[in-house]
Queue: 2 jobs
Job 1
Amino acid sequence: MTLFSEIDSQNIPKHVCVIMDGNGRWAKTLGKERSFGHQKGIQSVQNILKASIKLGVKYLTLFAFSKENWDRPKYEVNMIMTLLKKSIQKYKNDLIENGVKLNTIGNLHDLPGNVTKTIEEIKDVTNKNEKITLTIALSYSSRWEIINLIKKMLIEHQKEKFNVKNINEKMVNNYLCTSNLPDPDLLIRTGGEKRISNFLLWQLAYAELYFCNTNWPEFNKEDFYKAVLEYQKRERRFGKIN
């Protein structure tokens, strides 16, 4: 019996998020440059995207580059940006053929202009795809998102567009980067660390968290199925009693 066959098709997480950690550490164990780990990590993205489609996951969100990552060595940042651009171009047809809608969260204005242009072009040509939405978090941090949310709400309040008394969760959601996405059901973090690192702090309020020691370049479909099986063993009560 395969892990895939053990999964309950009636209890698939609608929205899965992944903190793809361990690229550099994995490369180091092999005596390679960190760039080697990032390059291998692209294949893991392809594998997990295909596994998500096979399971029927509707939304897959990947934490690719944080606001804090800009403080890494310049050569590594430049390499990641170049790899991002080339990978999106390389897999453009795969996204189209597999019904993948490309989406992003974060501040794309921070990225090099040619990278942003490529991303926007692929987002445009995949905009009507409906099988799965692949969201890439780029130059993203949750605290940055929440600060922006507060600024936007204050500006609109000054314009008398809403009454403070009417502020609720639904209204707040509309000001988030993820306003077009449902809250995550499952967060997976690879690489052995057990923290969420400033990622979707508001949205992850009731998500199931799954941590594994496998570094991202080695994280495969079977590892992904293990995470989904663990998710299915949990009782989601959302603060209530069953």
Note: The first helix runs from residue 3 to 6.
Job 2
Amino acid sequence: MGELLTKQPLVEALCELRFSPSDQWDTALPKRFYAEVKDEFPECTELNPVFQVAVGGQPVDMSEPNKALSRLQLRNKDNSVVVQIGADLLVVHHLQPYTNWENFRDLILRMGSKYVELIGEVKLERVGLRYINHISPPEGRFEIEQFLSVFPILPSPLNLDLAGFSQVYEFQYVQPKAVLKHQTGIVQRGDGKVVLLLDLDFISQGIESIESSNKIFDLSSWFQNWLNQAHDCVEAAFISSLNPDYYESLR
């Protein structure tokens, strides 16, 4: 997050940009994008074809041949950054080692600028900044409240040892206009280890400031401000979601 913790529970940070369907899109654009960034992202993988669904759940007219597309997944040399590009979509993932917010933000801006440079005028329909954390509890029995400040409180006779739990809350923000999807739970990783999940996804969509004025996507001002505000909100939610003693142990 903003403060670089000595012990980071972060496993992945990502920013997802979804744009309005554009006549400027063509199937050659992902490979043109790769050609521009291949020195930084030498590994390129074509993912299985994706059938797009428009915002609002309305299916895209599949008679348009370029709407059922394979996405390109680009990786840097140490696999710490993954960029996905597809029709009206750009996703920037940052895995470990995660350095700091400023570097991640600048990476998002560079990749977004490259996308806009290649496709031309675009409108942003949805943007999300998401941080996924895995907290490793001790083996055996443990109390969730040792780690999280947001946890299930159950009355008797339900006050029993939990085999698992999942909680999802959605909080509305005014500035910027957004929803924070806050998820906690117990999950099992691919290696079989059980961890506590803290997943924070800050999402703005149907963005009035862009759609109502018919402006094109502006990376130089509005988007930079949105990223910084979104990160501040996610960081505050992260800190307040943790037991204060546990948070101190991470610093």
Note: Residues 60-67, 208-216 have pLDDT under 50 and may be disordered.
